[in-house]
Amino acid sequence: MIKIVVAFIFFTVSLFAWKSTISHISAQVELRMIKGHSYHKGCPVGLSELRYLRLPYRDFKGSVCMGEMIVHQEVASEVVALFAQLYKRGYPIAKMQLISDYGGSDWRSIEADNTSAFNCRKATGSKKWSKHAYGKAIDINPLENPYISRSGHISHKASLPYKKRVIRHKGRAKERAMLLGNGEEVRMFEKRGWQWGGRWKRVKDYQHFSK
């Protein structure tokens, strides 16, 4: 009887901590995006097509934090549902801020191990718009889930220990943050029709999910 009560209390606290919101892009957020160079004239989507999300997450110390993200309106509810699942599974996320806070720089955002979505930029090594420019791509824990070139090169030094995709110490948050092909986190996204960069043949982009 005591065990049942304790489990119920824990479950209630977990649900209580999960309070997400989906809203239109406010004037304040728009200003942040423009000043932060993540949105500008010529982007393939308008601000009216985007949504601003506030999402609770567990950081690498186990603390509950409130993150923010911008995605396309068509995937907003789905993204909230996916991150609710990640939260309930106890999946750790280093931080979750708008890429505008990093001047729209993908490099700086990755160096900060920042989980983010919308950024009006071209795809890596291409003249075409990235899926991020449509708000239909998310990069999760980019240092622990690096982009690896065809030659096997990793640009960010902090990502080098994660080139081998093996979890040796399940108790370490940084290793639990690794996204693996046989992991439940990847399956959750793929079940909803998201493509994972970890399955690409020529390069590997373990942080990347797109729809």
Q: Overview of this structure, please?
A:
- The structure is a single chain.
- The chain is an alpha+beta fold and 211 residues long.
- It has one domain (17-210).
- The chain is built from six helices and eight strands.
- The protein has helices at 2-17, 27-35, 76-89, 106-111, 173-176, 184-191; strands at residues 21-24, 50-58, 64-72, 137-139, 147-148, 195-196, 204-205, 208-210.
- Strand 2 (50-58) and strand 3 form a beta hairpin.
Distance between the termini: 45 Å
Number of helices: 6
Largest sheet: 3 strands, antiparallel
Shape: globular
**Whole-angstrom Rg:** 17 Å
What is the beta-strand fraction?
15-25%
Strand order of the largest sheet: 1-2-3
Unreliable runs: 1-16
Number of domains: 1
Helix fraction?
25-40%
Short key terms for the protein model shown above:
three-stranded antiparallel beta sheet, 211 residues, globular, 8 strands
